[in-house]
Design goal:
- This protein is an alpha+beta fold and about 160 residues long.
- The chain folds into two domains: about 5-75, Ubiquitin-like (UB roll), CATH 3.10.20; about 80-155, Ubiquitin-like (UB roll).
- The chain contains three helices and eleven strands, in the order βββαββββββαβαβ.
- Strand 8 and strand 9 (about 90-95) form a beta hairpin.
- The longest helix is centred in the middle third of the chain and has 12 residues, at about 100-115.
- The termini are far apart.
Length: about 160
């Protein structure tokens, strides 16, 4: 039985090789790669997709042999947003400008989820607060008006049934 958990793998951070246990955390990778203050770490992905930001926290991160990461200066006008499709039980996250409207961010999320946006879908906070009246506001306005405390959103729709 070959388990990918709890062993070491070689990873590359800013083109330097390191050994890291897997699973690990983003915070551990920031320390291992000596990522500079005010910089973010990104996991490189194949194909025509954006590299994935690695949160500098204790979130578990499963590594593969020879995963590549790179750091870049953080952009203060960009934030990470997370959308969870409750019915599809899928979550996507991506970076976008604080000037993006909630509606535009939702459109990007459904594109990444590969799920069409249905007229009956609604957007809410993880706590259940309805965000439909605020779709025209920018992410900056949502934060400044204290409508949201984090850029985490849930897409909810009819559950259907037999």
């Amino acid at each position: 039985m070959d388990s990918s958990a709890d062993h070491e793998v070689r990873v590359h951070i800013d083109q330097h090789p390191y050994r890291s246990p897997t699973p690990t955390t983003g915070a551990a990778l920031y320390t291992l790669g000596q990522v500079q203050p005010h910089h973010e770490l990104f996991r490189e992905v194949e194909g025509d997709r954006e590299d994935t930001p690695v949160p500098n926290d204790g979130t578990p991160l499963h590594l593969q042999q020879d995963d590549h990461f790179h750091s870049a200066e953080a952009r203060p006008d960009e934030v990470k947003v997370e959308f969870e499709d409750i019915n599809a039980v899928e979550t996507v996250d991506f970076r976008t400008s604080l000037a993006t409207t909630l509606n535009a961010a939702w459109d990007e999320a459904v594109t990444l989820l590969g799920e069409p946006r249905k007229p009956t879908d609604r957007l809410q906070t993880p706590g259940g607060a309805d965000l439909m009246p605020y779709l025209g506001l920018t992410l900056r306005e949502l934060r400044e008006r204290k409508i949201v405390h984090a850029f985490k959103f849930q897409i909810v729709g009819p559950t259907g049934g037999a």
